[in-house]
Amino acid sequence: MRKSLLTALVLAPALSFAAGSAIITLEMPVGARQLGMGEAGAALADDPTAMYYNPAGLAFGPLADEWRMSYPVESKNAPFFTSMAARSKDGFFSKSELWAGTANGIQKFDGEQWVDYHSITLQGNAKVRDAVKVYVGTEHGLDEYVRQVKKFNDIKTADDEKHVVEVKMPWNLIVKDTITAVLYESRTEKLWVGTPKSLYRFDGKAWKNYDSELGKHRITALESQGASIWIGTEDGLFVYRNGQFEQKGKVLPSQKIRALVWSENRKELYVAVEGAGIARLIPKKSVNDKDRWSLFNQEDGIMDLSPTALAIDSSGHVWAAHNGGLSHFTLRKWEQVQFADNRVNDISVDQRGGIWIATDKGVWRHLPDYATASGRKAELERGAAEEEGSTKSEDEWVHYHSGNGLSTNKVWAVLPQGNDVWFSTANGMEQFKDADYQITAFYEKLLPILNIPDLYHLYAGMTIPLNDWGTLGFFVNFVSFGSTVASGDVDADDLVAYNSSEIVGGFSYGTRFPNDWGLGLSIKFFYSDLSSGAAAGQEEATTFGYAFDIGILKKNLLVDKLNFALVLANIGPSVYYVDKTIEDPIPLTWRLGLSYELLSLADYKWTIVADYNREVVYDDDKGNPEPFYISCWKSIANPERGGDGLEAAKNSLMQGVFNVGTEFVYANTIALRAGYLYDQTGKRNEVDLGFGFMLSDVLQFDFATIKDVGDNDGVRDGQMRFGMLFKF
Description:
Number of strands: 44
Largest sheet: 14 strands, antiparallel, barrel
CATH architecture of the largest domain: Beta Barrel
Radius of gyration: 32 Å
Structural class: mainly beta
Distance between the termini: 51 Å
């Protein structure tokens, strides 16, 4: 039998990854993003490729559900973040956003960072003054507005202005007061903002002030109803429709409006009226029709006459927050939920039907039984049971506080956004980030100088968050080594081609411990088919086995955003292909990693990473592989090149692979990457380049390539890698 040149060319460079060991697919790095950064990823470990680099990454967001302090600011006596409005992902290519009213203007969270400005790109010969004029919507005081914008953008001279392409307009250029209400109207994509004196609207390009149309009022609440905007003030209720304002509810015993909520199912508006209770309005449907009002007070079952917040749940039930608890309107009657020795500050409803209640002692999530499919059926049955005086409910209550997620117990306001939840607390703005399911796919054509289509590497992985239990992941890693050409049994000129390949599959799990420590485990099963002896009537060169990885990840080591990783990969027994007496070790490897977020601004994020990979395979005096608990240290103490003292330490260090890289992300949309790999043993000296496109919050594409910069044969020169990440 004779092998083709093809097999030799394929296996030789591949074996350089795991010299002296078998199952090289265990050491084939994955992910176009990481491969564009010099193949470093142990401390980054924030996407499904963490199952290869460091399974401890599955313990942290965005792979795992995570509580995070998003914007720290002391707010113990009064809320700094006074109100919130969210835009959830409403399309495949859309991104989620959050607007937060504060004690001194507006802040916006763009999905990655908080920004206090709106960016405008200058078109043609437009000047800063032209952009400011459009943004502020008036010429009154324009010179002062231009001065402030130039100062904000550090534009000091006319020459500076010539080079300006993007102008940052401060959100508080127009709205400087405490924000009392915020509403994002998704139908028209307009932002409505209320202050103690005025009502404003931002349409994505310009601000408009409504003092001349509405007058000066303290805006207390905003709510949308189709093309109409309802405005609650301390001087009454108003509706904005077709460019006109109209006052409503003059019949109410008090004109101090505290909260508003619209029921789309029942076409009703509920109004929290200071000192009077909760009013219900059924708006007139035609010019000749009349508004129909009704008022609920303590005689009807509400807790008191001063409700502070309102919400409508998925079944159309009305919830009202009071200082001492909740009032719940089942559409048949009012019920009360008492919060003893506590104060309720806000209430909101998530897309799954859960009721979030912000209090001075943490936040509760209440899932009524009628919010589930089985519960809705039970609710119908309870309708008859209530008439007989016997009811049974199996509601779910979960309490979050400083001991299980929040940094403090005092929560001023709460707002769900998709599966995430935002909290205005005494320590600032906090977020519960509900992790998405993530799927990644990766492809690279190996050794492009050969231009052979069946030399390739594939990887696919999926992560599944398990709430408080961590994250579970599944993966498969496949390498096709191409064809082996061998002579037949009868005729030496009768050549037969056999494919050689390896596949590794398994699962990973990561969980988090206090003080930003994460622990991860991967269990892998592999099958290797080299088929080198099949054509000559010999046994097939195949083997099957298992291995596992264990890794740790420490976030914020010594300083914020500095991460440290340590992994021992490919722990498992040796394998054999044909002869049981000839065992080959699998590539047991120590992996050490660091990553640091060097720059984190609204539009820019710059991260640097570094890994060190050291294979630790060691044979005993008889040439048999030592078990992992001996090899893991003995190979380091006894490098292949030998030596004594410092020379031995240097030789041991240089026996490993050095990986360094960097990633620069602009506007959470475009990523540029570069890296360097040095492998003295494998004779690799390479520069990696890559880029990525984040098309939305859910879809990302990555590309990377290799450039050999050493004096070696450069068999990987020009090798291209492609990757995709999908979240759902």
